[in-house]
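[09:14] KT: can someone run the structure on this one? pasting the chain below
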Amino acid sequence: MSSIGRTPLVRLGRVAGDVPAGVEVYAKAEHLNPGGSVKDRAAHAMILAGERAGLLTRRKTILDATSGNTGIAYAMLGAARGYPVTLCLPKNASFERKRILRLYGAHLVETDPAEATDGAQRRARRLAEAEPEKYFYPDQYNNDANWRAHYDGTAPEIWEQTNGRVTHFLAGLGTSGTFVGIARRLKELNEKIRAVSMQPDSPFHGLEGMKHMASALVPGIYDPAVADENVEVMTEDAQEMTRRLAREEGLLVGVSSGANVFAALRLARGLAPGAVVVTVLCDGGGKYLSENFWEENA
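[09:31] RB: done, structure tokens below
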């Protein structure tokens, strides 16, 4: 779809009020993609790769595990291109995400919430192995087209939008495709750019879509060598920043976006003038409105 990508790069103002003078912090507004998230890029790339390889045909159903956003992208693209879609996702995925998926016509297989996306991955793999003739299983956690979508698209956009001035890139780890793809390409464009990966501070967290790598199934596309530094964020800090982004910047985004911005601002506070930090607004906040964290005293 031609409307995927070319998202704006937004300079953060009020929430960055305590950042040293001369340090700039930007966020790539990926929530403005047609499916509402950064995952539109990867899902589109994986579907096109499957078609080119002859693995995705009109007789097959798109099947994958998801925490929600890639699933929404698959469902949107499946509806547009005429493919049925089956998605395995944790039962505790937000009501809004599941409703959107069903509106696009996706069939949902809900999995044990205690196993998070790891459980969804296991279920999807079993389904694909049991009926390989029925399913096209792109397996977003192990598909190189995932990170390549950002290497070929998102990273060059960031480079162009900053006029090559970007000095630091920070993003959270889910499948790791966004971080790995963007960081790899930016480092090729300028080897001095620092890449910082972010993840939740514990296995039990509220950063939907993010992985605590030490306790999770590690995606095959994840390359820890890409990161110059690894940082952790508490769920409560991410939630507070998510509320601030809505009220102070007019950016209604999800809690993983709040986590990215919280970590990016923490990084920026220790940098010298001339630094340009870029992070990612992963998805919109509309998928989470039923959750309690929007109320400060919840």
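[09:33] KT: thanks! Helices lie at 39-52, 69-81, 95-103, 116-130, 144-161, 177-189, 235-249, 255-268.
[09:34] RB: yep, looked fine to me
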